[in-house]
């Protein structure tokens, strides 16, 4: 079984405060998503394909943010409109989630637009994000918490995007605020933590951020669509490194998705003997669980993998088929 993640591709940040349209499914590669500039329609929003203008969009600054070149990213500051909107919003935070006030919703939408443009692209600058976070915290800590956890219209936060894009310096900045809700699920039921098996840490510092995500979040949440876990996602994409990291952070090897499949069954279906060995080495790994079709890991296995499972059962007298 090949699991897919569902994230928003080319989502409209302005619409995030009040609009919620269709989800977009992208096969595993959550790093292919980009938030859309407000006020534009995207072919990718419904097709799962990037629009022709995406590459240009990624190079543009926010319509409201102060323009800056890549070489001068550290000089970028929040726009005056953004600051004014944040100041206004900070005075109405208690009522923002329940209000039908169109002006406040517009204010929140404009903040959302600039925030996602700054924080949620593959090339988002940690220096710029740090500047925004500092400004937000200076205005009001509760405002910082609100903006850090702002969802777009598909429920993705800046943390979802930074993990999806393997932008670990930005992910670390968000975590360092101490205000990230790591278990926020997007409309498909995925958290930022659940996207880590698809990320590509390249340095020791990157891997430290990954481990922090896995330790501080819930690694055993199941997606709303299909019920898969982060562990199943890692196994289905043959990510040995991430599977080891998940298991070290108490990922439950025996959880089952909506069809009754376990991570072990996924590994057996894919014929990944090394992954099967890794999962079988986990204390309490149950070989005899069956899915809704009555299949066990052994019935799905062939050749050497089937032999591995039989040997595991023989070494565990309490197990029987």
TrEMBL record:
<feature type="repeat" description="ANK">
    <location>
        <begin position="154"/>
        <end position="178"/>
    </location>
</feature>
<feature type="region of interest" description="Disordered">
    <location>
        <begin position="1"/>
        <end position="72"/>
    </location>
</feature>
<protein>
    <recommendedName>
        <fullName>KN motif and ankyrin repeat domain-containing protein 4</fullName>
    </recommendedName>
</protein>
<dbReference type="InterPro" id="IPR002110">
    <property type="entry name" value="Ankyrin_rpt"/>
</dbReference>
<dbReference type="GO" id="GO:0030837">
    <property type="term" value="P:negative regulation of actin filament polymerization"/>
</dbReference>
<feature type="compositionally biased region" description="Acidic residues">
    <location>
        <begin position="51"/>
        <end position="60"/>
    </location>
</feature>
<dbReference type="GO" id="GO:0005856">
    <property type="term" value="C:cytoskeleton"/>
</dbReference>
<dbReference type="Pfam" id="PF13637">
    <property type="entry name" value="Ank_4"/>
</dbReference>
<feature type="repeat" description="ANK">
    <location>
        <begin position="226"/>
        <end position="258"/>
    </location>
</feature>
<keyword id="KW-0175">Coiled coil</keyword>
<dbReference type="Pfam" id="PF13857">
    <property type="entry name" value="Ank_5"/>
</dbReference>
<keyword id="KW-0677">Repeat</keyword>
<feature type="compositionally biased region" description="Acidic residues">
    <location>
        <begin position="11"/>
        <end position="25"/>
    </location>
</feature>
<feature type="repeat" description="ANK">
    <location>
        <begin position="259"/>
        <end position="292"/>
    </location>
</feature>
<dbReference type="InterPro" id="IPR047184">
    <property type="entry name" value="KANK1-4"/>
</dbReference>
<keyword id="KW-0040">ANK repeat</keyword>
<feature type="compositionally biased region" description="Low complexity">
    <location>
        <begin position="1"/>
        <end position="10"/>
    </location>
</feature>
<dbReference type="InterPro" id="IPR036770">
    <property type="entry name" value="Ankyrin_rpt-contain_sf"/>
</dbReference>
<keyword id="KW-0597">Phosphoprotein</keyword>
<dbReference type="GO" id="GO:0005737">
    <property type="term" value="C:cytoplasm"/>
</dbReference>
């Amino acid at each position: 079984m090949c699991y897919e993640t569902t994230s928003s591709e080319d989502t409209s940040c302005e619409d995030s405060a009040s609009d919620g349209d269709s989800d977009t499914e992208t096969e595993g590669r959550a790093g292919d998503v980009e938030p859309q500039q407000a006020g534009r329609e995207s072919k990718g929003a419904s097709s799962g394909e990037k629009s022709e203008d995406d590459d240009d969009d990624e190079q543009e600054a926010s319509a409201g943010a102060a323009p800056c070149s890549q070489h001068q990213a550290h000089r970028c500051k929040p726009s005056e409109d953004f600051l004014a909107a944040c100041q206004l919003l900070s005075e109405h935070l208690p009522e923002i989630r329940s209000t039908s006030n169109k002006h406040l919703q517009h204010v929140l939408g404009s903040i959302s637009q600039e925030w996602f443009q700054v924080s949620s692209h593959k090339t988002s600058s940690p220096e710029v994000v740090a500047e925004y976070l500092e400004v937000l915290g200076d205005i009001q800590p509760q405002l910082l918490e609100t903006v850090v956890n702002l969802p777009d219209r598909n429920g993705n936060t800046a943390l979802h995007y930074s993990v999806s894009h393997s932008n670990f310096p930005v992910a670390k900045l968000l975590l360092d605020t101490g205000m990230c809700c790591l278990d926020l699920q997007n409309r498909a039921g995925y958290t930022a933590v659940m996207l880590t098996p698809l990320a590509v840490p390249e340095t020791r510092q990157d891997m430290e951020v990954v481990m922090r995500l896995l330790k501080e979040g819930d690694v055993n949440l199941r997606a709303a669509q299909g019920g898969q876990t982060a562990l199943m996602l890692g196994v289905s994409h043959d990510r040995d490194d991430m599977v080891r990291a998940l298991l070290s952070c108490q990922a439950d090897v025996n959880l089952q998705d909506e069809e009754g499949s376990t991570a072990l069954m996924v590994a057996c279906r894919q014929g990944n003997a090394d992954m099967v060995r890794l999962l079988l080495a986990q204390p309490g790994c149950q070989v005899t669980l069956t899915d809704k079709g009555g299949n066990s890991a052994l019935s799905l296995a062939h050749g050497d993998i089937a032999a591995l499972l039989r040997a595991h059962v023989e070494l565990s007298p309490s197990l029987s088929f």
